[in-house]
Amino acid sequence: MARALRNKPGLHLLTRFLNSPSPVHLHGSTRTLETLAYEEVRASTDKPYNLTAFVLHGLLGSGRNWRSFSRNLASTLSNSSPSIEWRMVLVDIRNHGRSADIEGLEPPHDMVNAANDLADLIKARDWAWPDAVIGHSMGGKVALQFAESCARGDYGESVVYPKQLWILDSVPGEVNSENSDGEVEKVLQTLQSLPSSVPSRKWLVSRMIELGFSKSLSEWIGSNLKKSGEHETWAFNLEGAVQMFNSYREKSYWSLLEHPPKGMEIAIVRAENSDRWDSHVIHRLENLANQGGDGDEGKFSIHVLPNSGHWVHVDNPNGLLEIVAPKLASVRPDSS
Fold first, then answer.
1. What's the CATH superfamily of 2-176+245-328?
2. Could you tell me which of 110, 107, 120, 108 has the C-alpha nearest to residue 38?
3. pLDDT at position 178, please?
4. How far is CA 93 from CA 33, 96, 110, 154, 191, in A?
5. CA-CA distance, 224 to 34, in Å (whole number)?
6. Nearest-CA neighbor of 234 among 56, 96, 106?
7. How far apart are CA 266 and CA 165, in angstroms?
8. Which PANTHER family match (predicted)?
9. What is the pLDDT of residue 72?
10. Which of 27, 93, 248, 328 is most buried, by CB atoms within 10 Å?
11. Mean predicted lDDT score pLDDT of the chain
12. Over the range 26-41, which residues count as b (16 or more CB within 10 Å of their CB) and which as e?
């Protein structure tokens, strides 16, 4: 599909890499507040965008992990409706990617503050509120927290709810470590035991494999290194990420799914082969989706992505596109 996009006349894929230092006066202070780092992906520069989706990565990832999928999604949506131009904003969540180097993103490092960062970015850039938010794994819970905070009025009276929320292979309730194989915990504990800088990516991958992790997981961890002099160091703030993972496990958003704000649709995509889901959680989601609404609240739906494990954008990106794109294509800009 990417080859076909490159060969299509007149189609320009725009990717902008941006840190977002914005002078913001907080409580009389004149210090500069730097908001989250992000990247923009659009299908064309020939016309202005009129819809925006935020794309949120998972634990130990970064926005760039979702670059390929976001390009294809933006292009698919542009082709389906020439009058609509989507902008995908690939955010580096606090403690991750280029946001790991940004000062001023103070603790506690939890879902509430990760969602607050999104609102701060919107306000600092003087953007309209996003029409959709797409979040994978931990990013899914940040998306749910953002929606909950919007509905609660935490961001002020000018807030506009996202019309669609896409939660990709992210369990919406509390995550009990006793019901999982503990792989994430093992990875975090292992990374904490390693030196903060390592000789090379090859060394790290070999070490992780020696410790019993799969080659694919070890190589993915290795992809999250950055050059620091003659050595490599983490492209994330490890201790901050650990705190965020603990918050991810503890937070529950069942009440939001049961009572979505009017005008919002929350869609959960469960990967068919994912090991994140307990049967009782699946049953509860299916019952909730079958209840329907009375018109006074928003909507909830659940979708199953076949032939995919947890890494939905890698295992079956085309299948994910087929689920997400048609619904997003129904979104229309607010009339001005």
1. Alpha/Beta hydrolase fold, catalytic domain (3.40.50.1820)
2. 120
3. 62
4. 16, 6, 11, 19, 19
5. 22
6. 96
7. 5
8. 2-SUCCINYL-6-HYDROXY-2,4-CYCLOHEXADIENE-1-CARBOXYLATE SYNTHASE, AB HYDROLASE-1 DOMAIN-CONTAINING PROTEIN
9. 97
10. 93
11. 88
12. eeeeeeebbbbbbbbb
At residue 44 the predicted structure's pLDDT band, cuts being 50, 70 and 90, is: confident
> What pLDDT band is residue 27 in, cutting at 50, 70 and 90?
very low
Contact 57, 96 (CB under 8 A): yes
In whole angstroms, how large is the CA radius of gyration of the chain? 20
Own/partner long-range contacts of 312-316 (Cβ < 8 Å, ≥24 apart):
312/136, 312/168, 312/169, 312/269, 312/271, 313/65, 313/66, 313/68, 313/69, 313/136, 313/168, 315/271, 315/273, 316/271
Edge-to-edge, what's the strand order for the sheet holding 197-198? 197-198, 231-234, 225-228
Domain residue ranges of the chain, discontinuous segments joined by +: 2-176+245-328, 178-238
Amino acid identity of residue 226, one-letter, is K
- Report the distance separating Cα 116 and Cα 70, nearest Å: 23
Sign of the torsion angle spanned by Cα atoms 36, 160, 108, 193: negative
pLDDT digits (tens, 9 = 90+) for 288-326: 999 876 778 999 999 999 999 999 999 999 999 999 999
Q: What span, in angstroms and rounded, lies between the C-alpha atoms of 50 and 225? A: 36
Residue 147: closest CA among 125, 114, 174, 124: 114
* β-pairing verdict for 33-42 and 231-234: unpaired
Half-sphere exposure of 268 (CA within 13 A, CB side): 26
Q: Which tokens belong to 212?
A: 């019993």
pTM listed for this prediction: 0.89
According to the 3-state scheme, what is the secondary structure of 31-44?
A: CCEEEEEEEEEECC
Pull the structure tokens for residue 134: 């797409």
Average pLDDT over residues 79-101: 94
